[in-house]
From TrEMBL:
PROSITE patterns linked to this entry: IG_LIKE
GO terms (BP aspect): cell-cell adhesion
Annotated source species: Scophthalmus maximus (Turbot)
Composition skew (Basic and acidic residues), residue ranges: 221-232
Gene Ontology cellular component annotations, sorted alphabetically: plasma membrane
Boundaries of every Ig-like domain copy: 63-168
Location(s) in or outside the cell: Membrane
Protein name: Ig-like domain-containing protein
Entry membrane topology: Single-pass type I membrane protein
Keywords, in A-Z order: Disulfide bond, Glycoprotein, Immunoglobulin domain, Membrane, Signal, Transmembrane, Transmembrane helix
Primary residence: membrane
Transmembrane segments: 7-40, 175-199
Region (Disordered) location: 210-232
Length: 232
């Protein structure tokens, strides 16, 4: 929570000014306390901190790419030049946190450590997206990933955490989703082919009917008798 310094100065000034009236000491104290409470409500409670949203938990198959999605909502206008994004990693075994990624006007991937040449920026500052992609995850990447975003003066608030679990094969639910996605794609292609073939058949049938109607009209039309040029 942050407090505007101008609000504090105004509150103190009004408190001193209100206490200068020729009233009893108790009345002065009540007025001063009332002014301080009023300015605290106006200047502090109206400020909401940074809110960060993540999946919480996710799993990725060993050797595949994992997208760590992190979005944020700030009470201050987004400024691309001042937003600071930091990703850190806390392993399952006790140990120190390791820096994974840093963004400030541009991306700063790690130059050393286990995430060297493995992290790619996948976010959008104006879209309030601070996501990253970890290439070819390994079992040593099991742990908690912490996403922190600062948008000065909005620098206080919660942090986002993602517990990543690297597995040998996809879970049953992931396989079901994959099968449904493939089946849905195949079904869509088959439906499009059926519609295409049906449209072609209808067009050919219509052309054939028009041709038959034209031929029938020509046969029904009366023929003109040819005049013999030798006849007088």
């Amino acid at each position: 929570m942050r407090v505007n310094s101008n609000c504090i100065i105004c509150a103190v000034f009004l408190c001193i000014y209100s206490c200068s009236f020729h009233v009893c000491v108790c009345a002065r104290a009540c007025v001063c306390v009332y002014v301080l409470i009023l300015f605290w409500m106006l200047c502090v409670l109206q400020v909401s901190g940074m809110h960060i949203y993540t999946y919480g938990e996710m799993e990725a198959v060993n050797g595949t790419d994992a997208r760590l999605k992190c979005t944020f909502q700030s009470s201050s206008p987004i400024n691309v030049n001042s937003v600071v994004i930091s990703w850190s990693f806390r392993p399952l075994v006790p140990g120190r946190e390791e820096s994974v990624f840093h963004f400030q006007q541009r991306a700063y991937p790690p130059l050393d450590g286990i995430f060297r040449k493995r992290v790619v920026w996948a976010g959008d500052i104006m879209g309030q997206d601070a996501s990253i992609i970890i290439r070819q995850v390994k079992f040593t990447y099991n742990g908690t990933y912490i996403c922190q975003v600062k948008n000065p003066p909005d620098v206080h608030g919660t942090v986002g955490e993602i517990k990543l679990r690297v597995v040998t094969t996809a879970s049953f639910s992931d396989l079901i989703r994959l099968v449904l996605a493939v089946a849905g794609g195949i079904t869509g292609v088959v439906v499009l082919l059926i519609i295409f073939v049906s449209c072609r058949r209808c067009r050919k049938r219509r052309q054939r009917q028009q041709q038959q109607q034209l031929e029938a009209g020509n046969e029904a039309a009366p023929r003109k008798e040819r005049k013999d040029p030798t006849a007088w």
